[in-house]
């Protein structure tokens, strides 16, 4: 306990103290009483002037100022400390010291998860602590070392923020406005930018699937739901809304969110419409399909790996990666390629980033960011993201393929008939209850497949329709699925149902139609029976097998 | 100076004194005051503690009665204006405890 006060100055400064122990004590006492370093140094200067140069040598900061100059040191956060009552200030310091003594990485994880939980922007931390944002980000995410002094500032902000937030929540209960600064500052005069939390997004996407244009009452209902979820995520009672601060969900925000999603959808639809025209020239490439089933498989794996890793990498990176993959894909998969080519080319510039978020809706999974990537590159998707999960799977956490829940039947487009497409989309809507995506995609496939006369292609298109594979083992499944598909689809019209049911992306557009219907291991087969996405996820071949017959039945229309 | 300081009510005493007692504060015999003794590693620590308390006392305009010998500090808290314990004493006692931990 007491020892800390002696070590602290030296440790914090990172340099041998030139003070006597008592001097250090006194300095710390002064600083602890609410004096900021700045004020102290200034006061020293003034006093010296008053009393004359003989008053003494250097007092105060122990030589630190020479290194840091006046800058922002101490960071604005310390100024706020003065405003606290001395007890709280003392308590705060004690807590900060405790954190400083702990393992920096552990504390960083704590801070980071707290920020995620309350959806706090890094910007706020940076502004009030004077830390460099890049450094802060690296420290929190990757454990890049940070000097004790800076960590002290960070922990001070953290402790203080916790107080503020709990105060906000408490005050909310009593109906008082919080006197503390809930994340904005009089200095900055700026409220933190609102950010949707994952819990709210889930709710919104679900609602979007049900209805794209909610009425005011429905929006208000969503507001309540989202705020409740956000409070729960933060571990507080849902009635204490004020604690959410700048991240409080309001009706206007919900309204805007829906409007943006509708716009995104329209944009995607527009993109989709563009692609079919450029597709026709590529049809001839279909002939290339048969030769490389393995290739395709490998490809999908590759893609899968890419996407998986990219998905984990983070939103921005993912997008980039996905964009890259189609390029690779093109050469190997004719079907896909065609499709891809269209997508990629017409897609040209990626749709607005927000488009990616729309995929989320399909997923309804907590972290659908991964799926987002997928969705944005329909061509890529169909290529055989075996790990892609159809939105149906939304209710269940995906395994490896992990978050690619929302792969909407992009491959749908590759359907054979326009009519079936429509049917499919309708069905899809019915079954999946989601995927505006599918609707969008619908028009595309026609072109391609119409040119194919062999039933094989049909089947492959069926396969392509299969969207999602629940897990990494899906590759194998897909393969068999492809097989199954072919068998199943004797008739293009049948596809109407099957795409819905088949979530598996067909990796191999070709038609090695090994009549191994017996080996059907359709994943998504479950979809036929219930539109519940969760079924997509259940990766049990046995189940699939049982579904096959169902599919066949249903497809036989 | 502020208006007349109120002495602690019985309710408040019943509520607060147990907490203080838990923190090793003792009620002084013969007067309405609380007392505690702190022992530190050495004089520097002790005086650093006293400096913190002193600064706080000035801020609160409420001063303790205290004695210090090397690493020992004995503190008695009472409010002269009301002749007994008041909320200020409680507040300062809390602060003193905090400061002794630093």
From TrEMBL, chain B:
<comment type="function">
    <text>Involved in tetrahydrobiopterin biosynthesis. Seems to both prevent the formation of 7-pterins and accelerate the formation of quinonoid-BH2. Coactivator for HNF1A-dependent transcription. Regulates the dimerization of homeodomain protein HNF1A and enhances its transcriptional activity. Also acts as a coactivator for HNF1B-dependent transcription.</text>
</comment>
<keyword id="KW-0805">Transcription regulation</keyword>
<dbReference type="GO" id="GO:0006729">
    <property type="term" value="P:tetrahydrobiopterin biosynthetic process"/>
</dbReference>
<dbReference type="GO" id="GO:0008124">
    <property type="term" value="F:4-alpha-hydroxytetrahydrobiopterin dehydratase activity"/>
</dbReference>
<comment type="similarity">
    <text>Belongs to the pterin-4-alpha-carbinolamine dehydratase family.</text>
</comment>
<dbReference type="InterPro" id="IPR036428">
    <property type="entry name" value="PCD_sf"/>
</dbReference>
<dbReference type="InterPro" id="IPR001533">
    <property type="entry name" value="Pterin_deHydtase"/>
</dbReference>
<keyword id="KW-0804">Transcription</keyword>
<keyword id="KW-0963">Cytoplasm</keyword>
<dbReference type="GO" id="GO:0005634">
    <property type="term" value="C:nucleus"/>
</dbReference>
<dbReference type="Pfam" id="PF01329">
    <property type="entry name" value="Pterin_4a"/>
</dbReference>
<dbReference type="GO" id="GO:0005737">
    <property type="term" value="C:cytoplasm"/>
</dbReference>
<keyword id="KW-0007">Acetylation</keyword>
<keyword id="KW-0783">Tetrahydrobiopterin biosynthesis</keyword>
<protein>
    <recommendedName>
        <fullName>Pterin-4-alpha-carbinolamine dehydratase</fullName>
        <ecNumber>4.2.1.96</ecNumber>
    </recommendedName>
</protein>
<keyword id="KW-0010">Activator</keyword>
<keyword id="KW-0456">Lyase</keyword>
<keyword id="KW-0539">Nucleus</keyword>
């Amino acid at each position: 306990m007491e020892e800390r006060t002696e070590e602290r100055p030296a440790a914090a400064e990172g340099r041998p103290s030139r003070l006597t122990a008592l001097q250090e004590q006194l300095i710390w006492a002064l600083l602890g009483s609410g004096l900021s370093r700045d004020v102290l140094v200034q006061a020293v200067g003034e006093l010296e002037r008053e009393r004359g140069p003989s008053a003494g040598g250097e007092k105060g900061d122990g030589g630190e100022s020479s290194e840091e100059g006046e800058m922002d040191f101490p960071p604005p956060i310390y100024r706020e400390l003065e405003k606290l009552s001395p007890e709280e200030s003392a308590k705060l310091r004690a807590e900060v010291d405790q954190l400083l003594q702990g393992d920096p990485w552990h504390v960083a994880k704590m801070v980071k998860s707290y920020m995620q939980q309350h959806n706090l922007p890094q910007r706020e931390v940076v502004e009030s602590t004077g830390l460099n944002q890049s450094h802060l980000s690296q420290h929190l995410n990757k454990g890049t070392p940070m000097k004790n002094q800076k960590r002290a500032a960070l922990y001070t902000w953290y402790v203080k923020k916790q107080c503020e937030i709990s105060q906000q929540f408490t005050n909310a209960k009593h109906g008082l406005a919080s006197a503390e600064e809930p994340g904005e500052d009089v200095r900055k005069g700026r409220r933190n930018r609102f950010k949707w939390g994952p819990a709210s997004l889930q709710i919104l996407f679900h609602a979007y699937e049900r209805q794209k244009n909610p009425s005011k009452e429905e929006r208000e209902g969503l507001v309540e739901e989202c705020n409740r979820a956000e409070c729960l995520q933060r571990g507080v009672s849902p009635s204490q809304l004020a604690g959410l601060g700048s991240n409080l969900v309001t009706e206007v925000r919900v309204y805007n969110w829906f409007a943006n999603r509708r716009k995104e959808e329209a944009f995607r639809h527009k993109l989709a419409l563009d692609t079919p025209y450029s597709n026709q020239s590529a049809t001839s490439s279909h002939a290339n399909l048969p030769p490389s089933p393995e290739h395709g498989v490998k490809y999908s794996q590759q893609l899968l790996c890419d996407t998986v890793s990219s998905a984990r990498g983070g939103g921005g990176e993912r997008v980039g990666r996905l964009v890259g993959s189609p390029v690779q894909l093109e050469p190997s998969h004719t079907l896909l390629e065609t499709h891809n080519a269209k997508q990629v080319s017409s897609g040209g510039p990626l749709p607005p980033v927000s488009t990616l978020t729309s995929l989320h809706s399909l997923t309804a999974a907590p972290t659908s960011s991964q799926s987002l990537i997928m969705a944005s590159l329909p061509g890529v998707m169909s290529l055989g993201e075996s790990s892609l999960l159809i939105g149906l799977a939304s209710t269940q956490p995906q395994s490896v393929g992990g978050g690619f829940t929302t792969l909407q039947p992009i491959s749908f487009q590759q359907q054979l008939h326009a009519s079936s497409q429509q049917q499919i989309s309708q069905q899809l809507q019915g079954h999946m209850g989601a995927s505006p995506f599918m609707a969008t995609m619908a028009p595309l496939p026609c072109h391609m497949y119409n040119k194919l006369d062999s039933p094989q292609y049909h089947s492959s298109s069926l396969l392509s329709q299969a969207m999602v594979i629940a897990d990494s083992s899906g590759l194998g499944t897909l393969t068999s699925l492809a097989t199954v598909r072919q068998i199943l689809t004797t008739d293009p019209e049948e596809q109407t149902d099957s795409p819905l049911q088949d979530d598996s992306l067909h990796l191999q557009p070709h038609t090695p139609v090994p009549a191994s219907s017996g080996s059907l291991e359709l994943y998504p087969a479950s979809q036929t029976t219930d539109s519940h996405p969760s079924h997509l996820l259940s990766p049990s071949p046995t189940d699939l097998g049982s579904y096959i017959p169902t599919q066949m039945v249903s497809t036989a229309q | 100076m502020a208006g007349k300081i109120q002495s602690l009510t019985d309710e408040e005493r019943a509520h607060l004194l147990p907490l203080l007692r838990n923190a090793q504060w003792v009620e002084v015999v013969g007067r309405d005051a609380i007392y505690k003794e702190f022992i530190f590693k050495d004089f520097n620590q002790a005086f650093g503690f006293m400096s913190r308390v002193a600064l706080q006392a000035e801020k609160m305009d409420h001063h303790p009665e205290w004695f210090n010998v090397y690493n020992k500090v004995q503190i008695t808290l009472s409010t002269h204006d009301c002749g007994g314990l008041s909320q200020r004493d409680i507040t300062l006692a809390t602060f003193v405890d905090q400061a002794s931990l630093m």
